[in-house]
Amino acid sequence: MDALVRDDQRTEILRVTNPDSLVDAVVTEGGVNATTPTSYRVQIVPRGTQPRADHKWDDFRADHVDSLTVTWSSARTLDIGYRNARIFHFSNFWQSAQVRNFDYEVELRLAPRTPSALRAPEPPPGSAQSPR
How far is CA 33 from CA 4, 62, 66, 87, in A? Predict the structure, then answer.
């Protein structure tokens, strides 16, 4: 079980079928404690099936995620976009015995939308900072 999020507390928030309708990208979220309010997981699964509860099947796992997007740029390429995130796990490919007996491979790509996707950009040296 994931140390950050109990598997039974996950909620599916997005499912996007790829262009050739063989697999789905499934995004789930869950919250656990005061320091990590929400974590996100992305799993590729055969179309219409449920994501596995065990985090070892995650293709992407992160918390402190801002503006998460999951987009198929082609039938076998999934782009995972975000402004900021702390990424604990990422795999750049997926395949399964359930889809063409491992002969169907999906590439996953990270697509950060800021120069530093770990934290908000810092102001230039010498500039005044606004109070937070």
Answer: 8, 15, 18, 18
Q: Please give the structure tokens belonging to residue 11.
A: 């909620």
How far is 126 from 11, CA to CA, in rounded Å?
44
**pLDDT tens digits, one per residue of 121-130:** 566 676 655 4
Left if phi > 0, otherwise alpha if psi is -120 to 50, otherwise beta: which for 121? beta
Q: Alpha carbon 5 to chain centroid distance?
A: 15
The count of residues in the chain is 132
Q: How many CB atoms lie within 10 A of CB 117?
A: 19
Confidence tier at 87 by pLDDT (50, 70, 90): very high
**Structure tokens belonging to residue 130:** 């606004």
**Percentage of the chain modeled with pLDDT above 90:** 68
Average pLDDT over residues 35-64: 92
- Please tell me the number of Cα atoms within 13 Å of 81 on its side-chain side: 10
